[in-house]
Each structure stands twice: as structure tokens, then as C-alpha cells.
Amino acid sequence: MPEASVLFLRACLAVLAMPIYLLSFLGIWEPFCRKIFFPYFLEKLSAVHEKKAKKQKQELFRNLPDFTSSSGELRLLEIGTGCGANFQYFPPGCKVTCTDVNPHFQEALSRSMNKNQHIHYERFLVAAAEDLHQVPSGSIDAVICTLVLCSVRDVNGTLKEVLRVLRPGGAFYFFEHVAADRSSWRHFWQQVCYPTWKLVFAGCCLTRELWKNLEEANFSEVKVQHISIPLTGTPIRPHIIGFAVK
User: Fold this and answer.
1) Side by side, which strands form the sheet with 75-79?
2) Cβ-Cβ contacts under 8 Å for 183 (sequence gap 6 or more)
3) How far apart are CA 232 and CA 78, in angstroms?
4) Residue (of 66, 114, 115, 116) closest to 93 by Cα position
5) For residue 47, what are the contacts with CB-CB under 8 A and spacing of at least 6?
């Protein structure tokens, strides 16, 4: 019965979103989404998310300086930089390499960079999280990834790349929305929204249990906390936050 209910409600949601499904069928939606809609949406969502999660982020990134290398430099790599919402939390003088699979965030990213001139921006790479071949192995002190693992094509492949680019003793910082408890109504609605949400929001998956991927990756230590961010009207309330050490 629950499966039938999910399928029925998915169909109802698909009918409501029929114009987007039609544009997708015609090959119009994806380029429009990547270039115009998603950069606009992500900037707005980031502003709301920052208000709700500012204290958690401040606490998360508080110990970033602890991973400064023996040379005295702190080299950061951010996967899925997007609009640059995390720049404000990075320590002064750190060197940041920004990456994103979508190159169409220039305006919002430039605004964030102008507001946060306490850090040194080394370069911006258009790269998928699963393929960071432009970044040398063992060259990074800390990798940052927030609200990104939901939409990568291969979570385990991404974590392998993270481990590759990190120096021994380096850290991976994450803050991601995840699947709700499987017995909850929130998980039921995540299942209902899943196909349409993924189409509309550039491949974002609602039901990934990302803590399991982190625990199964080859980190020497994983510190993960399950928290709830009250994003009204969205199915992305459950989050995990923490860091993992190579």
C-alpha cells in the first residue's frame, strides 16, 4: 500500500510539473536549468540555508587552522563551490582552489569573492567531483563539500578523489542533506518528491544515506553528526555535518 501511494502521488506531482517534463523531453530544460535557473535558485537557497545553519557552520569550520601543513600554508579545495557561500568561514590567508561542474555561477561567485578578500583564491576549475585530475595527489590540506554530494553522479568515486588529493592527515569537511529515517513521514514525502525534485533541481537526490558512504570510505577517522535544519516547505530537513581525516 505505501508503495502504491508513493507511485500515485509521484504521478500527481509529475502532472503538476508537466511543462518541465516536456521541456526536458525536448532537450531544453537541462541547458536552461544549468545556465539560468539553478544558479539563481542556488543563490537564493544558500541565503536561506546560511541563516538557518550559520552557527553549525561556524562550529564545523572552527578547527580548519589545525590542518595547516608543516610549511605554514593552509591549502583548501572546495568541491561544488557554487556561489561561494562558505568563503566567510575560511581562515585568513588560506589558499583556496574552487571547483564546480557548472561554470555558470560567475556573477554570484564574484560577489562572494569581493566580500571575502581575507583569503587567497588560487584558481577555479570546471570539474566534476568524481574527476579532479587537475589537482595533484596529496596536495590539499582540507577539502570542503557542502550541499554537493546529493547531486554528484558517483558518491564513492567522489570520496576516492577526495582521499587522493588530500595529504596524509588532511581533512574532508562535509555538510549535506540526507535521507530521513525510513519509518518517518518525511522519508515517505522524500520518496514522493524524488523524481520531480531531481529533474527540477539539477540532479539533486533526496534519499541518499551519505553517512554510510563516509563510514565505508577509507578515512582513518570519521566524525559525523545528524542534525535537522528547518527549511520550511522543502523535503531536505535532515542533514549530516562533520569531518573525516585521511
Assistant:
1) 120-126, 95-100, 75-79, 140-146, 166-177, 238-245, 221-228
2) none
3) 27
4) 116
5) none
Q: What pLDDT was estimated at residue 94?
A: 96
71-to-50, 135, 227 alpha-carbon distances in Å: 32, 19, 35
> pLDDT digits over 63-90, tens only?
999 999 988 999 999 999 999 999 999 9
Q: How far is CA 227 from CA 69, 176, 211, 224, 246, in A?
A: 30, 10, 12, 10, 24
- List Cα–Cα distances, 84 to 114, 152, 202, in angstroms: 10, 18, 18
Produce one character per residue of 50-64: b if its CB has 16 or more CB atoms within 10 Å, e if not.
Answer: eeebeeebeebbeeb
Q: How many residues does the chain have?
A: 246
Q: Which residues of the chain have pLDDT under 50?
A: none
